[in-house]
DNA sequence: CCTTGCGGTCGACAATGTCGACCATCAGTC
DNA sequence: GACTGATGGTCGACATTGTCGACCGCAAGG
């Protein structure tokens, strides 16, 4: 495979840099962070700016991400076939289970949330579409790890970050857990990322049985678990939703 | 100002092209649409793909937008100062008015929705964050047209699209309306874009009085209007919310 | 079995993006 | 108020880099 286009890779790196840092970044900071000449960084930023991917604060001169990214991100969702077919099933699942529903796909080293149905009570909740969750400590992530070799590859050999005392941080433990998940066909994660939160996830596959994403429900330990284990009835609901979505995807082409 | 970076502009054009067309596009289609050599288009696509901005359907070989865009779009929202400060006020406004609340900023030739609070009843609604609304036929758009010279400039001299029989399609009419809006300090749009929908909007400005966005409420004509005019009490709510957000923004720096 | 379309590769060429010195401006400071 | 040290931004020479169009292999369709 021939090499990538240098200026484009650099532009992408700049966007990621701006996305990462909380605050706006100055030209010099950007150039220094990526080891570019100021002139070069400026040229890229100027172009990104006039394309709308980056905006410049009028008075400080510093740069931040631009509105066009939001628009394109929305377009991504519009085209996303998995999401489109899952919308109605996710709704049903939320209603049936009374819990929050997430739909996620593998993206880089994590799970990208592409759909989110609020828990059907009236508590205030923030939409998490577009945010990322870790692979090794969430139901969505562990499902993907268990079934998608690419996801397992992303884990590499690096140390796994620990979020709570129940987070699995040893690769061998994760692999054992994945074997279990494959055997029984679903994953759970009880207080492995957030205290008090438990979730149950299952795989979504396309017509050729390739893993393409995962659904999960997520809620308070008290409502999702019973006697220290996740409720079998909820597991059944999640698995049935996952099967329904997979079937729907499979039918997509005919 | 020196020229933009060619490859970057082209990459942006490809992304916009992919965002525009509903379906996935093949390499040749992309190359033809933008009048590029196939090799060139391929190089750009390849780079965009490995950066995650574009994905390729494994079996058809066609391209579509990538997940990274969703993630970056979300990051844009996270950094967005106007949105951050407006969140709580928008919530209050929705509760007080009982209607849907939108928060929009000028982007290219339209209004980009950066925040959306659902109407506080239980009807099913879809999140419109990231989508665009026309300038000349919505309350948000007309507010920006009235106060932001850049917005007025975007209108150019082109013919204005008509959505309903009440859409203003003559530039002179729009300008007259804008004068009125400036005079009284708020805008409305009753069935100018969607039949049965009325909205009321007001300007948000930063500490230096620059227009930075607009808030509006939007709902059924029957609940927003009375005797053929928008209800004064709703106008008051919207204007008060807009002032609150502006004040909040102004205080941001101190 | 040839044709026609597809996505993808290759290598020569020169247009293109890159680099680093340079400029203008502002804020702080002695 | 001139100095200092930041900043964002410009410029033009250079050669790296992206571009182009011919070419490849494959699959579908006549």
From TrEMBL, chains A, B:
The IclR-ED domain, residue ranges: 68-251
Keywords, comma-separated and alphabetical: DNA-binding, Transcription, Transcription regulation
Keyword Iron: no
A Pfam family per the record: IclR_C
Keyword NADP carried by entry: no
Domain of life according to the entry: Bacteria
InterPro entries: GAF-like_dom_sf, HTH_MetabolicPath_Reg, Tscrpt_reg_IclR_C, Tscrpt_reg_IclR_N, WH-like_DNA-bd_sf, WH_DNA-bd_sf
Gene Ontology molecular functions: DNA binding
Species, as recorded: Kitasatospora paracochleata
Residue intervals of the HTH iclR-type domain: 5-67
Transmembrane segments: none
The protein, known as: DNA-binding IclR family transcriptional regulator
């Amino acid at each position: 495979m021939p090499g990538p286009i240098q200026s484009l890779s650099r532009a992408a790196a700049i966007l990621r840099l701006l996305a990462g840092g909380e605050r706006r970044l100055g030209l010099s900071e950007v150039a220094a962070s990526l080891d570019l000449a100021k002139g070069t960084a400026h040229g890229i930023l100027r172009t990104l700016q006039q394309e709308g991917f980056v905006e410049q604060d009028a008075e400080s001169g510093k740069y931040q991400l631009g509105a066009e990214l939001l628009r394109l991100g929305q377009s991504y969702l519009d085209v996303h076939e998995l999401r489109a077919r899952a919308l109605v099933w996710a709704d049903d699942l939320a209603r049936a289970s009374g819990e929050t529903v997430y739909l996620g796909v593998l993206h880089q080293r994590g799970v990208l949330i592409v759909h989110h149905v609020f828990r059907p009570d009236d508590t205030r909740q923030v939409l998490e579409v577009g945010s990322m969750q870790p692979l090794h400590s969430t139901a969505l992530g562990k499902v993907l790890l268990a079934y998608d070799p690419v996801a397992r590859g992303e884990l590499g050999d690096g140390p796994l970050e620990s979020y709570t005392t129940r987070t699995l941080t040893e690769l061998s433990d994760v692999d054992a857990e994945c074997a279990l998940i494959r055997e029984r066909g679903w994953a759970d994660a009880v207080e492995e990322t957030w205290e008090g939160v438990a979730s149950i996830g299952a795989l979504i596959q396309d017509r050729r049985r390739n893993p393409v994403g995962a659904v999960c429900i997520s809620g308070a330990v008290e409502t999702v678990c019973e006697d220290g284990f996740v409720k079998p009835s909820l597991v059944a609901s999640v698995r049935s939703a996952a099967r329904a979505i997979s079937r729907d995807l499979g039918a997509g082409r005919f």
